[in-house]
Amino acid sequence: MSWTELDEIKARLNKAWAKGKLLRSPLDNYDGWPLRYPLRHPAAGELGSRFAEAQKWVQRWCAHEEKHDFQLEWRDINSRDIGRNELPVAIQFDYPEDAQALIGKRRAGRDYTRLCEQITISCPDLLDWCARKPLAVLELQPAWPRLLHVIHWLRQHPRPNVYIRQLELPCVDTKFIESHKKVLGELLDEVLPAGQIDSDARGVSGFEQRYGFLNKPAQIRFRLLDPSLYIQGMSDLQIPVTDFAKLTLPIQQIVITENEIKQALAAEIEEVLAPREKIVDFSDGPRPRVVLFVGVNGSGKTTTIGKIASKLKDQGAKALLVAGDTFRAAAIEQLTVWGDRAGIPVMSKPTGADAAGLVYEAIERAREEDLDLVLVDTAGRLQNKAELMAELAKVVRVIRKMDPEAPHDVILVLDATVGQNALSQVEAFRHTAGVTGLVMTKLDGTAKGGVLVAIAEAHDLPIHFIGVGEGADDLRPFSAHAFSQALVGAIE
To answer: Which of 44, 182, 217, 383, by CA, is between 20 and 30 Å from 436?
Structure first.
């Protein structure tokens, strides 16, 4: 087993940063600090056989300690061959700023502290939210002055019974509020009394009702085809429904504004999909976390694994890719290419080898090398082929013999182009492999993936990602709002 180097500690700190654990709010009071990471160090037996390597390893850590703001914890290790030697066995960061500096995040850490102070001076009730969502505080940095303007206005004008466009606030326009409804909803729920919130209205589509704004009046757009019926010389008009109801013209044909209908439909679809929206962090949880990817032939499993591997590498996670599709040589080659791009090892066997045996060996290796993740590709199989589904069940059984809690995730990858057939795929793979989450691919063509709505109604399964292209960045976290808008072709 290799000994811990500085790059591994940086990778662990980057993971902690991505979870917001290196950012300290005034509420934290340095809870959880100092931060200590054990080091894999030369064992007593290795001191005799690899003394020169061990000496250089110790020298590297001493040099790092002089350069950076951390302390090494030392311990005497007794070797039968060369006697007692003192070795570093752990690294300790006394303060968040010290850990931030090692990964180049000290300035961002200072920005977070400054923002927390400014936000909580202006609105103390937001202190807890800032502590829970430190990365969101940073991401919203340019928007905070305007967000706070909206919050203060609503505290002073509870349930105002006006349209959002009627708000007269510095640098705050309708577009800003529309694009920040989700986060505004979270913030307003923190600061407004329960009596000022309509708890029956939820989500972006229910923002106006929840906080007492008037809903945008329904509009009807119609075209008068008979010139004798033109109104003030106009043939094409758009007016509120209430005004339209008062017209006494002999109208026989109308054209309703298409986007209004689409927005209403999108809102209904979003209500169905919103409970299934779940961002998953594969780098978190048990170690090694075993993630199994299943699906039919050509659904995009191997490409999906490759894209996820690229994201995990950026987060500093140590992963192992397993080419469990031992029936298709091209799949092994494809996964190897993705592994090379991400700098993540790929474990495989010759074509035709036992997939369950390969997965068993991969989990053993992950334990020996102290890896965070094992991402397993599986052979594509049709859900109606009993013998192939039985083989998949065997892989799951072997994994559970090694760890009763594994596989920790079973991700079913669905092809958007197969339409309603995806419903039967979910049912079959859920029964055989215990599916825990979904990914839908190939949304970059004509397919829109509308079957996800039916799946969301029939199955209580989270939807994690959608694939909209071949690049690593084209695997995107699932957003119920964005998906619903795209599905119906609505324009915001």
So the answer is: 182
pTM: 0.58
Domains plus CATH for the chain? 1-139 (no CATH), 276-488 (3.40.50.300)
Express each pLDDT in 269-309 by its tens digit. Answer: 888 888 888 877 776 677 788 888 888 877 888 888 888 88
Looking at the chain, how many residues does it have? 492
Mapped onto helix, strand or coil, the DSSP state of residue 71 is strand
**What are the CA-CA distances from residue 10 to residues 13, 31, 32, 75, 247 (Å)?**
5, 21, 18, 23, 70
What is the rounded radius of gyration, in angstroms, for the C-alpha atoms of the chain?
A: 29
User: Looking up tokens 């505004």, which residue turns up?
Assistant: 184
Say how far apart CA 221 and CA 339 lie, in whole Å.
Answer: 54
Alpha carbons 475 and 247: distance in angstroms, whole number = 50
Residue with tokens 């990914």: 439
Query: In sequence order, what are the beta bridge partners of 220?
Result: 239
Asked if 192 contacts 152 with a C-beta cutoff of 8 angstroms, the reply is no
- Confirm if 290 and 322 have CB atoms less than 8 A apart: no
Supply 194's token pair: 């329960």
Other C-beta atoms lying within 10 Å of the C-beta of residue 418: 17
Q: What is the mean pLDDT of the chain?
A: 84
Strands 35-38 and 373-378: unpaired
**What letter represents residue 61's amino acid?**
W
User: N- to C-terminal Cα distance for the chain?
Assistant: 55
